[in-house]
Amino acid sequence: MTETDRFTKERERMVEFQIRTRGIRGERVLAAMRKVPRHLFVPEGLEQSSYEDRPLPIGEEQTISQPYIVAVMTENLELRPESRVLEIGAGSGYQAALLAELAGSVTSVERIESLADRARENLARAGITSVRIVIGDGTEGYPPGAPYDAIIITAASPAVPQPLIDQLAEGGRLVAPIGPRDCQDLVKLVKREGRVATTSLGGVCFVPLIGVFGWSGEGL
Ligand code: SAH
Asked: What is the pLDDT of residues 161-218, one digit of tens each?
């Protein structure tokens, strides 16, 4: 068996035992997770761990999230082929790759330039050309692409940054870890008639969102 075949098998097992049996049923999400080669988004030397049930370090003290958490967040964005999506925190580019499989347009903002460069490389290696990676403070959103049908924040914030709520379309969904610095509540916001309804999706632990409408970078 070639290494590529072995990774494909590992990915099928990951989706079956970490994702589907834990209650993620959206066929499009499951298919995207079976397809996107997660091992191309982890640092060299960690490929063999890329399908394990945990987050992994990607450098600069950041992490690629656990596959199950990626699945929960993605499913709750309720993406359609024409959806316009904004991600805050490109990191490795893995989440953005999944979004590109499921939506019409994807922009991902990353504050650390070296990670943005790596994310672009990883996406290119995976053959994904439709994601726009922007360097900047994602707590301010990305107004040129607004409004968005879905927004995903993959770093933890004390509160949902107001610019992101403003840039969400009518009927749009926003998923983000909100709460204290170490561990947070994963929340889903739905915007209707200018107001947001919030539901909780459970407890998570994410790296901090650092920016004007997030945490200050001091003392990290
Ligand atoms: N979604 C990523 C994982 C994100 S880790 C993946 O699939 O691999 C969180 C990322 O958020 C880190 O890369 C961090 O640098 C970035 N980040 C933190 N604060 C940010 C901000 N204000 N704007 C943009 N990116 C930010």
From this structure: 999 999 999 999 999 999 999 999 999 999 999 899 999 999 999 999 999 999 998 7
Q: Which residue has the tokens 């949902």?
A: 160
154 CA to centre of ligand 1 in angstroms: 6
Residue 65 appears among annotated catalytic residues: yes
- Domains along the chain with CATH numbers: 3-204 (3.40.50.150)
User: Measured between alpha carbons, how far is residue 94 from residues 126, 180, 200 in Å?
Assistant: 10, 25, 24
pTM value is 0.98
211/217 Cα distance (integer angstroms): 7
Here the tokens at position 173 are 């969904």
Angle at 191 between CA 88 and CA 68, to 5 degrees: 50
> Which residue is associated with the tokens 């940054």?
161
How many secondary structure helices (H) and strands (E) does the chain include? 6, 9
Catalytic residue, from 49, 50, 65, 108: name it: 65
